[in-house]
Amino acid sequence: MAVQPWGEQGSGYGAPPPHVPVKPYAQPWQPAQAPQMPQAAMRAAHTDRDRTVDVLKAAYAEGRLSADEYGQRFEAASSAQTYGELARLVADLPSGPMVTPMTMAGAPVPQTFLPPPPPPARPTNGAAVASLVLSLVGLGLPAVIAGHIAKGQIRERNEDGDAMATVGLVLGYLECVIWSLFMLVVLAVG
After folding, report:
1. Residue-wise over 173-184: b if at least 16 C-beta within 10 A, else e?
2. What is the separation of C-alpha 145 from the centre of its chain, rounded to a whole number of angstroms?
3. What pLDDT, in 10s, does the model give residues 47-57?
4. The whole model's pTM is what?
5. How far, in whole angstroms, is CA 115 from its chain's centroid?
6. Which of 73, 76, 138, 172 is placed for a possible disulfide with 143 were both Cys, Cβ 3.0 to 4.6 Å?
7. Percent helix, strand and coil across the chain, each rounded to 5?
8. If you write DSSP's letter for every residue of 140-160 in order, what string do you get?
9. Among 20-29, 50-59, 75-84, where is mean pLDDT lowest?
10. Per residue in 96-105, pLDDT tens?
């Protein structure tokens, strides 16, 4: 039966799970030389031991440690009293994401955490611009024709300019009405 790196719930640090026979290790594990740090002599807490055991579990699960090596380091972590002792247990193991030249140089932020890019700018419909200009000049009938053409193109092509086409149509129709009334008055008087 294989030794599980996570042990049993409530088994404690030093005690092996009850269903796993205790056997002597094939070859004793020698702790690596940990880098000297100012807090090496500080006393370790239970959470510090738990973090070290988590690194050992990950290394065992990834195949970096054999079952014997994991067991020896697990027991050493259970009885470690200082940060220095814990650091020696994991000095030759990665304790998190590997640092690469890309991450040291400031890797780009993953796309997941960036705000979505703004939508691309839609082009403005030329017929809508023409409709507005013609209506401002006073040419109502061409403005109405250009406005209707613009409305159809805007729907088909997903372009901007709907407001310009609407203003061109409204002013164009008003100008057509004014020109029609003017012609009626001229014909009635004449």
Report:
1. bebeeeeeeeee
2. 49
3. 888 888 888 88
4. 0.39
5. 8
6. 172
7. 55, 0, 40
8. HHHHHHHHHHHHHHHHHHT-B
9. 20-29
10. 555 444 445 5
